[in-house]
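Hi R.,

Here's the chain you asked about this morning:
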Amino acid sequence: MIAGERLCPSPKTPAKAGVAPGLMVGTSCDINTRGPDGPGRDTNSQTAPFIRKGGKTMAYIRIAPMEELDASVRKQLEAVRKTMGGVGEIAQVLSLRADIYNMTSGMVRTLLINQTELPYHIKESIAILVSKENSCTMCVGEHERMAKLLGMTEEQINQVLEGIDRMEIPDNERTLLQFCLKSGGKENYKVTQGDVDAVRNAGYTDSQILEAVAIVGYFNYINTISNALGAGK
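And here is the predicted structure, written out as tokens:
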């Protein structure tokens, strides 16, 4: 995780983004801590967990207090709180297990934050399309925001939200995004060699196809965490 740095407003330097999209965003949760008397009591304690404004977390599982967290995770959360003014609820849920938190953070850095073989507008389009398909409203909203920070226009983002057929994009990008939705769906066992060949014939390398499917897999994973454990609801 790139803790302590700010989200970058320029698509040229997104590797310096301050928080992992969908994981460590600071906009969804304000710093409203839980004191010894229970939720909703403001306190100056630096060890209390970060919960939603109004003193109540929406997650279905326990949010561990800061003093119980692994030291490396606690350091990252404190840096994000200081920089962004709060910690996203998915991060709070994942922080219960340092190994799962750090694994997820590594996936975000590798697939979404770092400059890779696929351009950022393609990666964010995949993020929004898959999250919308999975009805993960929190992830859709966060990646609308991230897409803007990475240079996509309001019109482009709205087109993604309306679906691939409404997007004004080159045919090769449409082929890739259609493949991504098919590969991420419940019937992805029906993906064939012909489907992969179509993406390859559209100009994408096998390495880029692997990256696209990995991003799809990540969002199926994080959407499941969010939906099943109540993060952001």
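One quick note: Confidence is low (pLDDT under 50) at residues 1-22, 24-55.

Cheers,
M.
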